[in-house]
Sequence to fold (312 residues):
Amino acid sequence: MGKLAFVFPGQGSQYVGMGKELFQSPSGIDARETALEILGNKFITVLEEGPEEELQQTANTQPAILLVSAVAGLLLREAGIEPDYVAGHSLGEYSAHVAAGSLTLAEALRVVRKRGEIMQDAVPAGGGGMAAILGLLAEQVEEACLSAAELGVVAPANYNCPGQVVISGEPKALAFAIERAKELGAKRAIPLVVSGPFHSRLMDKVGADLQPVFESVSWNTPRCPVIANIDAREVISPERTVNTLIEQVSGAVRWEQSVRYLLDVGVDTFVECGPGKVLTGLIKKIAPGVNLLRVEDMASLKKSLAYLKESR
Fold:
């Protein structure tokens, strides 16, 4: 029997009303209450009713996705399904650590709210952005970024799947790298609607500002390995947890490499825990033929549990 991984989405998967059904379960009610105590009534209102523009603010998006994702993972575990590995895309790495018991939901909500606030304020409006480059090899995208180095900071930010690499940086350098990518044969270059140049060295200060936040948290040894975005390798100690999460803010998310690592250690079933199906789509492109499940609402939870209990 192959191994099982829970995977957790990052920013971009959010929508108003996500997690509504999951919050009606006993554990979901408790988790919602925890978020209400820590983040306040306004946060819960924005999550459940909108407006969309407020949910899109990084300081709201990050705890909202984490809350829904953590409940999805918890409901699987309560039903007797334990993952062999967990991984998350960017923000999702925090949800993965909650699932692995590295930190409590309450502490994670505090940390990601602060992370979102710091990231939102890290670069002035218009000081940088991100773009998805489609149809090139990762090496070609790296070459396009290097060609723009004299104009400012720009570098790969997310290695998502074959033919999809997101780049991040300062406006002039970003624009030049996009044009160079097109010259190299990129099928498309799509500017992303984000509030800053995430996962670039323009975020170095965010990592430094997060250090005292992390020091205020009680970190536990994960009960199963967490695959770190920064190097696509296992995290099994509190010290490495903190180091990888701090480096992750200004380093690239190596998602394709993380999935390939999980395949190498025998994972053949992935469950995406949380809103949307972005990771399901990426994994399908990286590893056609693996078993892909999702938990986003009660219907998908029941379907995934039925499959897992029969196959495991």
